[in-house]
User: What shape does this take?
Amino acid sequence: MQPAEVARSYDEIAHQWLEPHLETNGMRQHEHALKFSTQQGGRALDVGCGCHGRFICLLSQHGYKVEGLDISARMIELARQRHPGVVFHHADVCQWCPEGAYDFITAWDSIWHLPLAQNAGVMGRLCGALAPGGIFIFTLGGLDAPAEKQDSSMGPPMHYSTPGIPQMLETLAASGCMLRHLEYDQHPELHVFVIAQKL
Assistant: This one.
């Protein structure tokens, strides 16, 4: 399943990401990531930002000028309606090239939709887009080995992949980033969030 197909699936269900129960999803983890920041504010990027904007609001409250990136046209349309002062990029992160450095990048429940073959390259590019001391928080499937699957648990078909924790750690190190935190935050589900910092 290619990213354009994932985009069409998210176009169908974009409205579901405006539901109130999402207000707290990932917020504790982002608050923790902010503690590792060496500065207050700067440039931030929300990869797979969706339409809700909770991370955009949180980072803005901490002095960041935030940009959003999403492959779903409907998600971007709704996000622009909710946050008219924010710059949003409608693009495939596999092809998108960041302009300048960011001090904080979040990719919460987003880059795990990439084709497995694209995962390490995208992660390396996002690490490369960090300014020294910059923070990168993201999620992945907490497996020991690379894997990918497709299901329809959200309704339309969706693709998921994980490089596995060992390969992810290798990619971070090769990209000049240090692991700061790794947590199975929904155990026994294999949902892992990672905080890394650019050296």
Observations:
- The domain at 3-13+39-198 is CATH 3.40.50.150 (Rossmann fold).
